[in-house]
């Protein structure tokens, strides 16, 4: 995963060059405090995955106004993760607003192309996800409102005597029909764009956690990134397999079809809950780290 994250985590060292903070070996979990950076883990022999931190680049020395925006964005992202359980579209929009704050450019700090690309990818992918989610919700509302109208609910008519809601229905209906309509495209775009935004966000937050003297949180950013990647891969794989089965017109017996569908839905739900819980815990702990860093 070195292409997605730096190979090492910056940590504080004491005057003798020993690790001066609790940081655990990613392989076996052994606490590497008071170990030399050049040494291997005494428990499992894996290389010590840290490097000396640049004390001049500590997060608490950053612009206070910018740091407050990062803290607020982390809190919003935590709230959005909780809200998404009940309200998916508002949760996505809230998460996009949170990522907009989290990816604010730090003033008076030189930014590498690597970090700039990561920051802007998270920012604009979340905006695309929010726009697609709102469009998806709009199409759903138009569909159900017109369904009520067709059942005889009076919603008012235009000068021509034709209910304006029915005109919307005629425009929206073709978009929601067929094997791959506009509705499916918008919903898939919202999900894919938010997945990209969060994958990039964890890379961005990893660097901030390392600067905030939080190697444990930085390691969890990396672990959560891997969870997202595995989860997205699993869901995409199941979706592709399902479409292949439909395209090949493979017929399963009734009971077997029902059980297979139930198992697949269960797997997707477990994966989504696995990712969601990791997000809730990490955003909570990341905000605590920022508050502690700011107080210091």
Automatic annotation (TrEMBL):
Keyword Transmembrane helix set for record: yes
Keywords for this protein: Membrane, Transmembrane, Transmembrane helix
Keyword Transmembrane carried by entry: yes
TM segment ranges: 76-103, 124-145, 185-202, 228-247, 259-280
Protein name per Swiss-Prot or TrEMBL: Putative RNA-binding Zn-ribbon protein involved in translation (DUF1610 family)
């Amino acid at each position: 995963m070195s292409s997605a994250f730096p190979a090492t985590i910056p940590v504080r060292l004491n005057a003798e060059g020993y690790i001066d903070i609790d940081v655990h070996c990613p392989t076996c979990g052994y606490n590497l405090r008071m170990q030399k950076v050049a040494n291997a883990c005494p428990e499992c022999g894996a290389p010590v995955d840290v490097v000396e931190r640049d004390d001049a680049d500590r997060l608490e020395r950053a612009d206070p106004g910018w740091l407050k925006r990062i803290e607020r964005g982390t809190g919003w992202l935590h709230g959005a993760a909780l809200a998404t359980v009940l309200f998916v579209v508002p949760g996505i929009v809230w998460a996009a607003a949170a990522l907009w704050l989290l990816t604010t450019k730090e003033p008076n700090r030189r930014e590498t192309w690597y970090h700039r690309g990561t920051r802007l990818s998270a920012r604009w992918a979340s905006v695309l996800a929010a726009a697609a989610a709102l469009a998806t919700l709009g199409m759903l509302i138009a569909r159900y409102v017109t369904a009520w109208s067709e059942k005889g609910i009076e919603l008012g008519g235009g000068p021509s005597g034709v209910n304006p809601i029915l005109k919307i229905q005629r425009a929206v209906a073709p978009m929601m029909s067929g094997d791959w309509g506009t509705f499916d495209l918008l919903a898939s775009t919202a999900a894919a764009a938010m997945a990209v935004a969060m994958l990039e966000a964890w890379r961005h937050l990893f660097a901030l956690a390392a600067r905030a003297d939080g190697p444990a949180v930085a390691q969890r950013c990396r672990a959560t990134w891997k969870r997202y990647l595995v989860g997205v891969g699993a869901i995409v794989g199941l979706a592709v397999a399902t479409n292949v089965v439909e395209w090949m017109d493979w017929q399963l017996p009734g009971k077997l079809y029902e059980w297979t569908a139930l198992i697949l839905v269960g797997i997707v739900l477990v994966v989504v809950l696995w990712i969601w819980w990791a997000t809730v815990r990490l955003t909570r702990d990341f905000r605590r780290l920022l508050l502690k860093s700011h107080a210091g």
